[in-house]
Design the sequence.
């Protein structure tokens, strides 16, 4: 775990983004063209978060597989497959980032599932702790999927990924982020074997 | 309580809580006392092991959790920026303005 370094400092473009977002949240419509301009013309903002996501994915793969290189390789491939499936053939930068976030949450959730199942045989205290962790990872996973769904529904022109079947969504709810049922794909469920640490 | 010395001899007492009240159970100094002492020691070391395991896991996962949180926040901010830039707005945690965006796209 000592191999995992801390994330780099945020570049100035992220500060610009935060400032513009604050103004836009206050209802300042003049900042909207600037916001669009920043997202379109400054790729370093996407690169920064893309790099962070890649770094986090590698770190999670290391933790999940410990010293088992075969497990690391197979998990990495599964994650890559899932990423391709979620992001589609020609993803926009935001779509790629949101799909990468889903993958991270997927890794975190399945590691939490594994630890919770393992802790069940050890002690109730451990079981409680890992169950809480599992629940929070699950919430995070659903939120990340909800964000991707939101993007695809609101900006279908910008999304290059596979279309979302609206029949599977609860159309009575206007809250798009809460309208996703638990979408765990059994085929992609991670199977962790051996000791994790 | 554990082992207590009385008249240069050692006697084992088990401290436990029963119906909300603390009580000390006398085991004496025979084989039963030895067995009870071993069991108490085992329980203690098991609890220490679990505590240590929790501490280690938490330390190990702290960096990873913070990385995920950073990506999470960043992705959420970028999604928000993208949607705001296109003309959507947020009201009570819901995205609104689809009609406005359609009109903007037409013009």
Sequence:
């Amino acid at each position: 775990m000592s191999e995992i370094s801390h994330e780099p400092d945020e570049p100035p473009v992220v500060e610009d983004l935060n400032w513009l977002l604050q103004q836009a949240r206050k209802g300042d419509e003049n900042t909207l063209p600037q916001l669009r301009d920043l997202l379109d013309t400054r790729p370093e903002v996407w690169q920064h978060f893309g790099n962070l996501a890649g770094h986090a994915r590698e770190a999670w793969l290391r933790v999940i597989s410990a010293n088992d290189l075969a497990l690391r390789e197979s998990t990495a491939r599964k994650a890559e497959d899932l990423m391709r499936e979620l992001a589609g053939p020609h993803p926009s930068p935001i779509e790629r980032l949101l799909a990468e976030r889903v993958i991270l949450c997927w890794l975190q959730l399945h590691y939490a599932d594994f630890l919770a199942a393992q802790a069940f045989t050890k002690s109730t205290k451990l079981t409680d702790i890992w169950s809480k962790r599992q629940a929070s990872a699950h919430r995070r996973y659903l939120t990340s999927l909800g964000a991707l769904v939101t993007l695809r529904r609101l900006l279908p022109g910008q999304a290059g990924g596979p279309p979302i079947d609206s029949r599977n969504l609860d159309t009575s709810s206007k809250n798009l982020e809460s309208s996703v049922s638990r979408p765990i794909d059994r085929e992609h469920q991670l199977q962790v074997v051996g000791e994790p640490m | 309580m554990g082992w207590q010395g009385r008249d240069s001899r050692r006697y084992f007492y088990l401290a436990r809580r029963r119906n909300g009240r603390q009580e000390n159970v006398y085991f004496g100094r025979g084989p039963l006392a030895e067995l009870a002492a071993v069991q108490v020691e085992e329980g203690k070391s098991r609890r220490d092991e679990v505590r240590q395991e929790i501490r280690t896991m938490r330390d190990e996962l702290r960096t990873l959790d913070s990385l995920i949180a950073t990506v999470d926040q960043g992705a959420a901010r970028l999604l928000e920026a993208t949607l705001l830039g296109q003309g959507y707005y947020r009201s009570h945690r819901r995205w609104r303005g689809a009609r406005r965006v359609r009109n903007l796209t037409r013009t």
User: Anything to note?
Assistant: Strands of chain B lie at 2-6, 9-18, 21-28, 89-91, 94-96. The longest strand of chain B covers residues 9-18.
